[in-house]
Amino acid sequence: MIELVISAFVILGGLLTLLGAIGIIRLPDVYGRLHAATKSATLGVISIMVAVFLYFVSTEGVFSGKVLLTILFVFMTAPVAAFMISRSAYTVGVKMFNKGHQDDLAKYENREKEISKN
């Protein structure tokens, strides 16, 4: 029974990673691509690492703290890295896709420019 759960986590992780790869190819701008890569790839890696953890606990009887730390590390660092990359892309001036975008940072950027002029 545990083999089915482990297999489900591995398949889910593979599908989420595949979904992220498709999103990188299909989405029009850097922000959408970064979102697809971060969300789905992070969840895919975490799903696969949960499967690894369950495998070692169930078959080997080993509680692997390294696997849990890897899950925590990926869960904490991937969103922060994506945020920093997207913020730097915005600061440099990478344009968003024209259809249906909402630029919430524009008024703050304009206000900062006005403050720095004074």
Automatic annotation (TrEMBL):
The membrane-spanning stretches of this chain are 6-25, 37-57, 63-86
Could you tell me the keywords of this UniProt record? Antiport, Membrane, Transmembrane, Transmembrane helix, Transport
Principal cellular location given in the protein's record: membrane
Topology relative to the membrane: Multi-pass membrane protein
Name the InterPro entries for this protein.
Answer: PhaG_MnhG_YufB
Q: Does the keyword Transmembrane apply?
A: yes
One term under GO cellular component: membrane
User: Does Manganese appear among the keywords?
Assistant: no
Supply one GO molecular-function term. Answer: sodium:proton antiporter activity
Q: Where in the cell is it found?
A: Membrane
Q: Which family does it belong to?
A: Belongs to the CPA3 antiporters (TC 2.A.63) subunit G family.
The name this protein goes by in its record: Multicomponent Na+:H+ antiporter subunit G
